[in-house]
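REQUEST FORM: STRUCTURE PREDICTION
Request ID: SP-0412
Submitted by: Lab K.M.
Chain count: 1
Length (residues): 386
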Amino acid sequence: MATLVGTVPSIIDARVHFFDPRTPPWSLQRIGRASVPVLRALPRPLLWIASQFTQEHSLSGIAGPGLLARRYQLADYTKDLAGLQSVAGVPVSAVIPVDSQWRRRQSAEDSPEAFQRDLDHLLAQPYGVDGMPRLGGVIVPLDERAVGLGVRRLLDEDDDDLIRGVRLRWARHPDPLVHDWTSTPDAFATAHVERVLPDLIRRGLVIETLCYSHQLGELVEVADRYPEATFVVEHLGLPAGVFGPVGNSTGATAAARADILNLWRERMAMLAARPNVLVKISAIASPILGYGNEKSGNIGGQHILADMIGPLVLHVVDRFGPRRVIFGSNAPLDGHNASIGVTVGALLDVLGDRGEYLLAHLFYENARRVYRVDDAATPDAGSAET
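STATUS: Completed
RESULT:
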């Protein structure tokens, strides 16, 4: 089995979450998870109406049972790296955390101060202490709430230049039990986003986007509109239900899953023709892809994960090339189905025979270049390619 020994000095994990649901702004509505079986039993018209009153119901599709109710910090992440060394042969030297606010709609907690608390929480982790990974930079939210609530202020007050990108969560799905990340039909066309986006691009910030695969065609138009920007598509373009049923009826039949896969392949090929678009190979064990809903792991191990995710990963790598793919563990949200070691091992199984150049860029070089990860955050970075 392939390892990363001699290929990279370490791994840069470009997608992790740190959160504490006991405190704002992560306090979630606990009714959500318990309401899912009841919601599924409703007729479709009533299902849509009920879903609007239980806004966190579909969060059960993005993480394992009970995970979002537990605190997750850098120390927990470091424990979850156990077993990675034996698989990859190298450690994780730096992480790039993203905001972990899962609430979809505006609330009293949505204020510039709330977003500042989120950023402060990310920055307060003990990076680099006792062998824990260093901080490579942070990604802050850019949605209909955050844009109007001081994203520019966060950037202007970022004296240490640690904000490396902004993240627009514009995923909306016609299935009422698949989570909507926004209530805005076209997030990129909102007055707030259109007003602030050019300024963010001029600042050299990466524009990360979270959308479902059927929305990727819209991103093609945005990438053409801003050719000077760097866009990163999260989670392989998120083809919800591609492996099995999720939500109410998404991916419920083989024919439906084939349609999801075919549309995803077509849209990713279109995006690959835009040189300013990269793909984050993250969330490859996410429940939302349709692996199953058992309380214990739903995949069965590294080799099964490699067999399932392999065609998607290879399609992305073949179209985007080695310099436009970035690894992210999505910890801890995928931990229910696969550990970080299993996730990395599955990718090595899929891509090991593609050569060291691809592996070096996927796991290290591209994240260091795109997110401007400081040399001090990575070992032997001075010898790495820029």
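NOTES: The beta strands are 11-17, 92-98, 134-135, 138-141, 163-169, 206-210, 231-233, 277-281, 325-327.
Reviewed by: T.R.
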